[in-house]
Amino acid sequence: MALFLMKNKSMFYNSELTSRLINLNLENDHNSLENAFNIYKKIFEPIVNLNQYDKIGIQECSNIELFSNNLYLDSVKINFKLYLDKYKFYQSISRWYWKQKRHQIFEKILILFEEYKKIYDKIKLNCTVNNKLYNQLLINIVNFNNILSNKIVLLKITYSDDSVNVYFDKILKILEPVNS
User: Fewer CB within 10 Å, N side or C side of the chain?
Assistant: First the structure.
């Protein structure tokens, strides 16, 4: 019986139904990706609001509520939030007291950007499949990446330490637009 169905699968194949299912899946995927992108915009807000000599700090926390079962967000890897540490005269003492060591912070920020890149890559891939649905989302993410790149360069100027510049270079590489 199975052999008969395999030879005559065209009896049961409906191209219109398949097309609708693929488009429905792309729309659901688009909504999840757009929600994930909006959450990342919220997570990266301290970086976006960065001014010269400001620094970024990390606070351990659970992001389970924020991520709300979005399959593109990993609350295990991203179990912290960023905050903006505005420049002040005693900033180095404050950062020492709160254990905000630059290498630990930038390791976590790099993980955050690597997870963000997965969303970016998925959007680029889906844009090639269904350009109409994903094109605006891709434009939004590229514009946001330009803002983030400028702020990372500002952070790189603030930290003149070569040992953390490796992190900045990796993050800037992640944010580079890839020609399609």
Answer: N
Alpha carbons within 13 angstroms on the beta-carbon side of residue 114 total: 12
Mean pLDDT of successive 10-residue stretches along the chain, which has 180 residues = 49 49 57 88 94 85 68 75 76 61 83 92 82 86 95 88 86 78
Residue 133: HSE in the Cβ half-sphere, 13 Å Cα cutoff? 20
Q: How many separate helices (H) and strands (E) can be counted in the chain?
A: 8, 2
Q: What is the DSSP letter of 51?
A: -
Helix ranges restricted to H, 130-161: 131-158
Backbone conformation region of residue 57, classed left if phi is above 0, alpha if psi is from -120 to 50, else beta: beta
Residue extents of the structural domains in the chain: 39-175
> Which tokens hold the place of 132?
């109409």
pTM: 0.78
The number of CA neighbours under 13 Å toward the Cβ of 33 is 25
Whole-Å CA distances, 96 to 9, 27, 81, 92, 172:
68, 47, 18, 6, 27
